[in-house]
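User: Modeling request: complex.
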Amino acid sequence: MTDDIARAAGHTDPPPRMGFFTDTSVCIGCKACEVACKEWNAIPEDGLELTGMSYDNTQGLGADTWRHVAFVEQRRPLGGAASGAGDVDVFDAARDLAPAPGNGELRWLMSSDVCKHCTRAACLDVCPTGSLFRTEFGTVVVQEDICNGCGYCVTACPYGVIDQRPGDGRAWKCTLCYDRLGVGMEPACAKSCPTDSIQFGPLEELRERAADRVAQLRAAGVDDARLYGEDPEDGVGGDGAFFLLLDEPEVYGLPPDPVVSTRDLPTMWRHAAAAAASLAALAVVSFAGRPR
Amino acid sequence: MSGAPRDAVEGAGRRRRRRGRGEQAVVPDAEFASYYGRPILKRPRWRPLDIAGYLALGGLAGASSLLAAGADATARPALARTAKLGAAGAISLSLAALVHDLGRPSRFLNMLRVVKPTSPMNLGSWLLAGYAPLTMAAAAADVAGRYRAVGAAATASAAALGPAVATYTAVLVSDTAVPAWHGGRRDLPFVFAGSGATAAAGLALVAAPGEETGPARRMAVLGAVLELGAFQLMKRRLGLVAEPYEEGRPRAMLRAAEALTAGGAALAVCAGRRGRARAVLAGTALLAGSTAMRLAVFHAGVASAEDPKYTVVPQRERLEARSRDGDGRP
Ligand code: SF4
Ligand code: SF4
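Assistant: Request completed. Predicted assembly structure:
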């Protein structure tokens, strides 16, 4: 069972594995989670920038952003309205805007992204110092007093979550509010979410709730609803923080089929061993040639 | 779920990519969705010179240890000394580059607070912790001309670890989410092995007298064949993800690496035992070629992480292949 990872990591008698279910279908893009996270975890300010691409000026997860709300605006291009800017028949344009059968309306997708607390976490696997560790709650946390800023985790995470903080040098990411969990509180982002888009709880329970929610949405005709990261059979063994999405994952900046790189370690070491043997053989041949 | 593409306003939807500079298409232009064209992966934070230097110097050291042992065994004292000093110097600089790249260099020794088989950087640190002192003992005994037994044992042990030192770094970079590195996991160790051999041969040609460098010249040719051959295999296997090697900086580095390595190896053969100047030129070209190859690999990896195309398209293809084969998930 993937949920015995805390036990596998050496915790005796751990509590149930805790996680997030982020239901993006009810997210209103208020960014309360981003703010609550920054406040609670005392994350430094990392620049105020207007991207011009949407209401998303945060841009992505990083060393100083542990919750990130993505904004996606979608619609069908309006055939007639594209020609001649000065001279548009607004009534025609309005008629074109009327919902075409299927999908014609403008829609907003909003989604609060976070570290996935992978069952098989690449960041944790490759960390050479043991700074990254698996908590008793099954989450993945950096120990800041041990991290030496080697940056290996940054290149290993298949979701592009963890990053090094400039000036500080160490790696930082979501801790799933390890300190709050320790005293029985829920993480700051889930606490602050006004629509319950971010739900926190035992992973087992969240998976059931999520399956119900998808079924409910599909029954209501929302065919695009799908779960992302809930499958314990996927390339990272399932996420401790998973999502309900309304479009393909890549539209939200998520990889469609992430894989933990260490899955291929045996192959890699085998090839390296063969290459090392070739190098040794090459040297022997070089000396075995004509004596000169 | 891979149904009809939905249209979307700029960025947050499908987009087409141009290819740079009229290159021949390896694979047809891919159409894919992304979040405003932003990368999915984080850009590796490693500094190019530190990490490419760490890779190149490790290769130079590992293969030099082989040359040193061979030179000892075949009574080529000048070649042996060059190779021993080269191995010790290169591995010291390699370690210095690694430490310099850390966000917290003073915590370097935290690398050795655990033994962690899932982390190639951890295992590599343990390997270097064993290997570096051996190269220094070998070089010191040679220069001092004393403690011959210790020196011989150190030389032999360093030679035993040398091939691993030259190739583990390929596992280190492949064990990441970076598409061009992870995709090259089967061939990269051979590229690095060949590149280490040409570098060590290059150093020997520069610094050792012509009567003793016969093995180095042969090593240069064999290493160049291994390196460039494995690289071609890797490019073929990478498919779409080989594109970054044909654009911008990685392309320039790669062309330089190919020209310098092939040219250096050819010149090394022509130089023969006499022709000191030619040997020095050949050796310099080989050393520069090996470094350029590591820089090309480094920069191509960074470029492949920075464009969401190389993350999304191969993963989409994998999903589609899987759903075609009917094994479950969308
Ligand atoms: S999402 Fe990335 S940073 Fe988070 S646990 Fe998984 S590999 Fe680590
Ligand atoms: S940067 Fe820190 S947390 Fe990340 S792999 Fe290196 S030591 Fe571990």
